[in-house]
Amino acid sequence: MSEAADDVVRVEQRGRMTVVTITREDKRNAVNADVAAGIDAAFNDFEDDPDQWVAIITGGPNLFCAGTDLKDGPGRGTERGGEYGIIRRRRTKPLIAAVEGLAFGGGFEICMASDMVVAADDARFALPEVKRGVIANSGALFRTARLLPPNVAKELLLTGAEISAARAHELGFVNRVVPKGTALDAAVALAETVAANAPVSVQQTLQAVDSVLSGTDDEGWSATVRGQAEVMASDDIKEGIAAFLEKREPRWTGR
Asked: What range does the domain containing 73 cover?
């Protein structure tokens, strides 16, 4: 049975701030079509509201997001947001990710699509796609190397290994590490600091920085499409997803 978008994504306005929460915890906040639609609608409203100046995306008090729902899929990319309703969005206002617990696969990629990351001290980040026979197709193939040292990016992408909040902070990906259960409060405090500044100055500064950083995005997306086409044509993708759903070790063939 399909879930309504407003049942799996909660939106709250706190003064000049919008807080978007994925509320599908029984599925580890995995993104299906309804979650993507809810995120897309939330950020369309945020961008279009001149009285909202900064946003936070979170997954609640226990975990952030486990990425794509491998059983149901994430649905089609949205017109304004792309994958998950957020990955390709051309935002003009700041977005902070507040991370508790795990941010795996597409959850990590949502963090990469944000401007700042506040993480609980038990938070974990990973790109486990290669363990499932699939490929990171929501920006990680090029954003990981932009946000982390290239050799670390390759390790994460090629091994599927986890990285702790402390290590991610040490490498510059996470802005602040805070005690477990306080990531949202810390993100709200950071958002309030941003929102206290002149909104036009903040927005123009953000767009200027993004215009420099996103200069190679078209090339990155083209490389992602090529890689995904090869993976989708392989036997390994079928085996990887089947093994995940059947809770067993995959039997790779390399074909």
From this structure: 5-218
